[in-house]
Amino acid sequence: MTDNVMINYRIEGQFSNIRAHSHQEYEIFLFHKGVCRYLIHNQIYDLQPGDILLMDGLALHKPNVPDGSEYIRSHIHFSPEFIEPLLDSINASSLLHVFRSIHHCLIRPTNEEHSRSIEAQFKSMRAIYVDQQLPPEEKIWEIKTMLSQLLIFMNRLGKVSSQKQVNHKHDKAYHAETIASYIQTYFYKKLTIQKIADELSLSKSYVSHVFKEMTGYTVMEYVMATRLQQVKFLLEVEEDKTLEQVANECGFESVSHFSRFFKSHVGMTARSYRQERLEIYIRSDE
């Protein structure tokens, strides 16, 4: 239909081994059932059924689902360009403020009727999204209209039910977030678990254990995922920088290690990735 929007409804299955990832699209995530601790950047959300996460997509994020646990969710990915013209036409561009300025937040509806309404909207949008009988243009019109209505409802609900940060976190969540924040700040340096533990006045074993328990992946996996995210950013916005400069600025020990890591995790070379992303920008300007 279009590369600018993707809609999934009630996806089942657990992804405890999924890597931290990021994407260009904004995301509306609806948690239906199961057990999930969601990490976005350096914030941990312990999800409850009915919770909604709004995120700009660019921050590293990852669900942590215990092995064997149920995990049912819906999500909508959309590029801002997909919906902006319609929102501008009704003077409602501020509905994207949560994605642009707050970047991510949790909405926890306290009214069951609101929860049912939100799920019904997701279900209806998915039905339109997969309908093979609708002409493509008509399908896009309908999805844009429904998405704008969903954003209006989210905006109203978010004013009374949103949480950027959850207060009174227990020690494990607090320490895991502190570790993530430290890595996000100093990813470009030579980091070891021992160095992180020393800087945060924690034991090495505790740092390893608590981060794995709370986020679902190891400290060094998160270090490398953070470096990879910054690499992608520099490849796109600093096109004059050599691959060696990008690797050095992002904390890789050598350009060969950087090249191997990038290709194994992205599926293409860094050079090809840069060329592909730049071509997308060129096409969008035409």
From TrEMBL:
Location of the HTH araC/xylS-type domain: 177-276
Record carries keyword Transcription regulation: yes
Record SMART domains: HTH_ARAC (SM00342)
Keyword annotations of the record: DNA-binding, Transcription, Transcription regulation
The protein's name in its UniProt record: AraC family transcriptional regulator
UniProt xrefs under SUPFAM superfamilies: Homeodomain-like (SSF46689), Regulatory protein AraC (SSF51215)
Organism of this sequence: Gracilibacillus salinarum
Pfam assignment, any one: AraC_binding
PANTHER family: ARAC-FAMILY TRANSCRIPTIONAL REGULATOR, HTH-TYPE TRANSCRIPTIONAL ACTIVATOR RHAS
